[in-house]
Predict the 3D structure of the following.
Amino acid sequence: MSNFDKIKVIGKGGFAEKVYLARKKDTGSLYAIKTMSKKFIMEEQGRYEQVFGELKVMKRLSNHPFVIKLLAAFHSEDYLHFVVDFCSGGELFYLLQNKRLFTEAEAKFYFSEILLGLEYIHNQNVLYRDLKPENIFIDIDGHIKLADFGLSKVQK
């Protein structure tokens, strides 16, 4: 974490994790860093497998414009950290709440990108089992990024 400056918490998750907006010190680039407590992960059977399953899936899926990209994964004494794309547009859920209704063109645009992302994920033999507006992010250019692969499974 010494390579990053934490700016603020931008999200919280079900595994007692926090997601930070962080700036990489040497480049000034912005990233989202998902930070999970090792102690919390080890407290309950199944959490360890889920977290490392998510890491495995993210490594497999880091090559598509509509899927969140894992840029780095590392650990400190007490935490695991996943560094991913920062999506400044926030969640599709938030956009839906504020806009209330998409035009037909907007709905087709988002649906098409979601479909292309799902097609890629499934072509990588991954079952993505948590598709919902809260797990779809909007990047700086207005394109979607599918995220949160904690429930995903790699098919053999």
